[in-house]
Specification:
heterodimer, A: 95 residues, mainly alpha, globular, B: 212 residues, 10 helices, 70% helix, elongated
Chain lengths: 95, 212
């Protein structure tokens, strides 16, 4: 059930490093996934516009570093928005 | 055509009656479906699926997302483009379903061995005697603090998240809570663990530095 073992670091060391990294990043006040979800569309547009979203909304950036699911969704959102720039022929579906 | 609508036009069209609403719903559906399809096609874990299967998956996710978006229209505050807000909801819906499918039938008790952390999970060979000694000291402290300072629930949640990588909504379901409450429980656990380690002279940053 653990992620694939293709990483060069042995899994047990990786777990300890992950735990220590998470603890090192732990702050007294953090945004929850729900609070980040409220802001992430605005955050993505700032980033897409070339504005440094991390400086403007550091608490969102911090959560995205800590939470793999929110980070995954943020990357997916950015990717979906990038498709705005594709030519119409590149965004046609099969069938 | 989709991007020519202003936020106000999207809201007005989706809240209208008859063909005007139907056209807006259809535009939104197509807009989301295309983007989800191209995103899903890039995911390494879905490479085994055919283009048609991915297109069907994207269509299903888009359909479910549009229903949610229509229910949440009143919550749109206009901080971003309407389509960005809608894409956020669709991505959350799609990725949440993929995560739940991946972790279906996983038992929390089986994952966390009744909530006790076994030190061997954090130790591995090969290590030099010096590395082994330092790492064992850190590991023993971490495990001791986790097993004595955290509640069973905090420990279970932290192990499932950090050791097993269980997604937060899957874990919340298993623990009969919601993701927001679970995030708070995990945050409290991390703060307590960090404080107790610092009290015993262990700084996570300093220890990390020894791992190179």
């Amino acid at each position: 059930m653990t992620p694939s073992a293709s990483h060069p670091i042995p899994e047990s060391i990786a777990v300890l490093v992950r735990l220590l990294r998470t603890l090192a990043m732990t702050e007294e006040r953090e945004l929850s996934c729900e609070e980040v979800f409220e802001l992430v569309d605005y955050y993505a547009e700032l980033q897409g516009a070339g504005v440094n979203a991390q400086d403007l909304l550091p608490a969102v950036a911090h959560h995205l570093r800590l939470c793999p699911e929110c980070a995954d969704e943020y990357r997916a959102l950015l990717r979906c928005l990038e498709l705005e720039t594709l030519a119409p022929g590149q965004t046609s579906l099969p069938g | 055509m989709t991007n020519e609508r202003s936020n106000e036009a999207w809201l007005a069209d989706l809240q209208a009656e008859g063909p005007r609403r139907e056209a807006a719903v259809q535009d939104l559906l197509i807009w989301l479906e295309r983007r989800l399809f191209f995103y899903l096609r890039e995911r390494s874990d879905l490479r085994g699926l055919s283009e048609d299967e991915l297109a069907q998956m994207a269509a299903d996710f888009a359909q479910e997302s549009v229903l949610i978006i229509l229910e949440k229209l009143a919550q749109f505050k206009g901080h971003s483009k309407f389509t960005t807000w809608a894409a956020k909801i669709a991505v959350h819906q799609a990725l949440g379903e993929l995560r739940r499918a991946r972790w279906r039938d996983v038992s929390l008790e089986a994952l966390t061995a009744e909530g006790q952390l076994d030190p061997t999970v954090l130790l591995s060979d090969p290590l030099t005697p010096e590395e082994k000694s330092l790492r064992r000291e850190v590991v023993n402290l971490v495990v001791d603090v986790m097993n004595t300072e955290l509640t069973k629930r905090q420990r279970q949640a932290l192990i499932a998240r950090l050791v097993q990588g269980v997604p937060i909504e899957v874990l919340a379901e298993q623990m009969h809570t919601n993701p927001n409450a679970l995030y708070k429980l995990l945050h409290d656990a991390r703060k307590r663990l960090k404080t107790r380690l610092l009290e015993r002279g262990i700084s996570p940053e300093d220890v990390l530095a020894t791992f190179g």
